[in-house]
Design goal:
Blueprint: E1 11-17, E2 21-28, E3 31-39, H1 42-45, H2 55-68, E4 78-81, E5 93-95, H3 98-106, H4 117-127, E6 133-136, H5 146-149, H6 164-177, E7 186-192, E8 196-202, E9 205-209, H7 229-237, H8 242-252, H9 255-259, H10 264-272, H11 276-299, E10 306-311, H12 317-327, E11 333-337, H13 341-353, H14 372-375
Parallel strand pairs: 1-4, 4-6, 7-10, 10-11
Antiparallel strand pairs: 1-2, 2-3, 5-6, 7-8, 8-9
Helix pairs in contact: 3-4, 6-13, 10-11, 11-12
């Protein structure tokens, strides 16, 4: 642990790019000064061949929003962008250097996602005033234990894509509410929104969880979740393409495929009103979340200090009650509706600026590259 300095209300600007907008927030210490959702016209975004080509367009709109809100970049101590496009890496706060910037720009992980604009925008703004730029617990955070990586096929390993930023921040906050450090606790932490992540946290590391963009985990509003491999092969042999099947894993599965909507609130209301298809889909999703929570508790070997629920769907009190009824015997269930993504990015920068945490260096190499005993 680094030597901490005298506490100070560091001013941190955070940038979280999404599909059609970019969330921007300014924090003085833990206090949000302002947040703004900068909208981007879909017709304008469609003009760009790749995600990184959008940088000048998005940056100009963000700069205009900052000027409108009277933000002087020289008053900002650090800039944080949502990470994306990186190779698997341990969790933490990473300073944006040339390697990280290059990987986020070209999408080194092979996934084109607006999050990879985060480091680029943060770097561009920080460079103008000589301040550091960071990413915090990016989506490619991978702290799996060795046992979680193995499969029964030589050379095929499990990888992980989760809502790492919100999952870890929820765990950090809950540990603090218990008067303990995250590094001293064991939690099962869930993010339940358009995508659903269920993860095992063991003394400060996210040691297990699902590859939610690769076809693992519970069914979600926009994702199919885990599927029987033999049935997927039958699905392909029936004439469905690989690209179509991949989209079911990432964007068009779950409620979208079953019910024609990604609106979880609509599905919940339809289920309560007696729509049998909606009820079956909703109940299956809750069942699968609870089953995954049990699996993560087993991965931790029991002794779970809490089951933590975050994400937009956690505003649904019935959902929380159903999970608590099924899983409360494992550990106390606590709801944190919504998400802490902007707050989490600012908190990660503050930990480095305060000296409570050392900034990490992005190696540009995946944290895991196989087991020699199987790959030799």
């Amino acid at each position: 642990m680094a030597q901490t300095t005298e506490p100070r209300a560091w001013r941190v600007l955070v940038i979280n790019p999404g599909s059609t907008s970019t969330k921007v927030g300014l924090f003085d210490g833990e206090k949000p000064v302002f947040t703004v959702n900068v909208a981007h016209e879909a017709s304008e975004l469609a003009k760009f061949a790749g995600v990184s080509d959008q940088l000048p367009y998005r940056l100009s709109l963000i700069e205009a929003a900052l000027a409108e809100n009277g933000v002087d970049l020289a008053s900002v101590d650090a800039f944080v962008g949502r990470g994306g496009g990186l190779l698997p890496l341990p969790g933490g706060t990473y300073e944006v250097d040339d390697v990280l910037l290059d990987h986020s720009t070209r999408g080194a992980n092979g996934v084109q996602h607006p999050a990879q604009l985060g480091p680029q925008i943060a770097h561009a703004l920080a460079a103008r005033c000589g301040r550091p730029a960071f990413v915090v617990n990016p989506p490619d955070t991978d702290e799996l234990c060795d046992e979680a990586r193995m499969t029964g096929v030589r050379g095929v390993y499990r990888h992980v894509h989760l809502h790492a930023l919100n999952l870890k921040e929820t765990a950090i906050r809950h540990a603090a509410s218990m008067g303990r450090a995250y590094e001293d606790c064991r939690f099962v932490v869930c993010h339940i929104g358009g995508g659903i992540s269920v993860s095992a946290h063991d003394h400060g590391k996210m040691v297990d969880g699902a590859d939610i963009v690769g076809g693992e985990g519970p069914m979600a509003p926009t994702r199919a979740g885990a599927l029987p491999v033999a049935e997927v092969l039958n699905y392909l042999e029936a004439g469905h393409g690989v690209a179509e099947t991949r989209r079911l894993c990432m964007k068009t599965g779950g409620f979208v495929d079953l019910l024609g909507t990604s609106d979880a609130l609509e599905v919940s209301r339809r289920a309560e009103a007696g729509d049998e298809a909606a009820r079956r889909a909703w109940d299956a999703m809750v069942y699968q979340i609870c089953k995954e929570i049990g699996a993560m508790a087993a991965a931790l070997g029991g002794g779970v200090d809490g089951i933590l629920l975050g994400g937009g769907m956690v505003h649904n009190e019935g959902l929380v009650a159903d999970i608590a009824e099924r899983c409360g015997w494992i550990a106390p269930v606590t709801a944190y509706p919504g998400e802490f993504e902007l707050e989490a990015m600012a908190a990660g920068a503050r930990r480095v600026l305060n000296g409570a945490e050392l900034p990490r260096h992005y190696s540009g190499k995946p944290v895991f590259e196989g087991f020699p005993c199987f790959d030799a």
